[in-house]
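call fold(seq) -> tokens
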Amino acid sequence: MPAAPGLPPAVLVVDDHPGILTVLHRLLLEFVPTYEILPFSDGESALVHAAQRVVPLVFTDYHMPFMTGLELTAALKAATPGIRVAMITAYDTAELRKRARASGVDYFLPKPFPFDELEEIVRSVLTS
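ret:
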């Protein structure tokens, strides 16, 4: 489905923890005020919205019910190859990093992470 005309580009944030969604939403609004920041608590909802919008960047948690961040990344990359995905997770293992790369994850942020790393990713993707 093509992007709806007239809608601003969006950055998606996908995490099943409301507190994380709130913090990331607020930070991203500061970093990129010209983009709409859309929070989702599950991968399925994020996929639906990604198909309807111009979405250059997605931040996703790894461990979520129904669809992992790896599954979400693979689906996003299949639908929109140029989309960039940053995975934020408390599960920082060599095996997960390997699986994340194989799924197409562009950036891997283990929790807790400095907010300037988040800003660096946003600036790198959205100003290039």
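The chain has a mean pLDDT of 92.
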